Automatic annotation (TrEMBL):
InterPro entries: CopG, DUF8146. GO terms for biological process: regulation of DNA-templated transcription. Residues 6-43 form the Ribbon-helix-helix protein CopG domain. It comes from Haloferax volcanii (Halobacterium volcanii). This is Ribbon-helix-helix protein, CopG family.
Length: 85
């Protein structure tokens, strides 16, 4: 048997929704992909994910090695292919 995808549904307020839509547009990915990325990260790190504003992240990275959070840059074609799966 294969691994079946499940659907998660929940409500957010209108302001949060608009912010999420802006994040998706900024990354040039779908709104669903924003959530999948977050869920994948959350599961991969056993729920130990810390959300840090970008400006604070840059301060944390100064003078330290990049141990957390891990970042990987991938081409947009990879993301598009991943979204189709």
């Amino acid at each position: 048997m294969g691994n079946k995808n499940k659907t998660i549904s929940f409500r957010v307020n209108e302001d949060a929704f608009e912010t999420l839509r802006e994040i998706a547009e900024e990354r040039d990915i779908s709104l669903s992909a924003v959530f999948r990325d977050y869920v994948d990260t959350l599961v991969a790190h056993d729920g130990q994910v810390q959300v840090v504003p970008k400006h604070e992240l840059e301060k944390l990275r100064e003078g330290e090695d990049e141990s957390f959070p891990p970042t990987v840059e991938v081409p947009k074609s990879f993301i598009r292919e991943h979204e189709r799966l």
